[in-house]
Design goal:
Elements: H1 6-13, H2 15-20, E1 25-29, H3 33-49, E2 54-63, E3 69-75, E4 81-83, H4 99-114, E5 119-125, H5 127-130, H6 136-145, E6 149-153, H7 158-165, E7 169-171, H8 176-187
Parallel strand pairs: 1-6, 1-7, 2-5, 5-6
Antiparallel strand pairs: 2-3, 3-4
Helix pairs in contact: 4-6
């Protein structure tokens, strides 16, 4: 199933979309990835303290005994880690992405979308997602379930992001208040759509 690009435009224009609302995505520019990931994690934790059901993952780096830095995806709801980078040894220039761990993290997001999450956090739209891999299925699961999404978008893949998300996404400043305003607007009752 591939909602993005042509189909995303059709869905946003459809009477169904106008009647019941459709997934809205807050796209955070990820020039400062560490700050944006911390912001998404903190905002998810804040909403969960208020009783909102949040699913998804954020990205973090963890120092390894070798002195290298490992990239992990962290489940915002449980705190579980998915190490998505592999240590291929000194001097390796091969891609060190662990696709099996990435698939597990993606499955966690898909399950959260199916199981009634009110918000999904997706750590990134970057190289893998631009090629329609990575966490693309997580985005699709949220879209299918009509669950709002907060996502970080790599500055290197803005064109691919626009083609992928189309009018379902809006750019949001990477600030806590901007996210809070987006969430409040999304949750506010509206005469032309049911609240999410």
């Amino acid at each position: 199933m591939s909602i993005p690009s042509e189909e995303s435009h059709a869905l946003s224009e459809s009477p169904l979309s106008a009647a019941i609302g459709w997934t809205r995505i807050a796209a955070l520019p990820a020039e400062d990835s560490v700050r944006v990931q911390s912001l998404m994690q903190a905002f998810a934790e804040e909403l969960m303290r208020d009783g909102v059901r949040v699913g998804g993952v954020t990205q973090t780096r963890v120092a390894e005994p070798s002195g290298r830095s490992a990239i992990m995806l962290r489940d915002v709801a449980t705190g579980a880690f998915y190490p998505i980078s592999q240590d291929l040894g000194p001097g390796s220039v091969a891609c060190n992405l662990d696709t099996s761990e990435l698939a597990l993290a993606c499955a966690v997001i898909e399950r959260a979308a199916r199981d009634g999450a009110q918000l999904i956090v997706v750590s990134k739209f970057s190289k893998q997602e631009a090629a329609r891999g990575g966490l693309c299925d997580a985005f699709r699961a949220a879209m299918t379930a009509r669950v709002p999404v907060i996502a970080a978008v790599s500055p290197h893949y803005r064109d691919e992001w626009r083609a992928f998300a189309g009018p379902l996404a809006e750019d949001i400043a990477p600030e806590r208040q901007a996210l809070a305003d987006w969430w409040a607007k999304l949750r506010a009752p509206s005469p032309d759509r049911t609240s999410i």
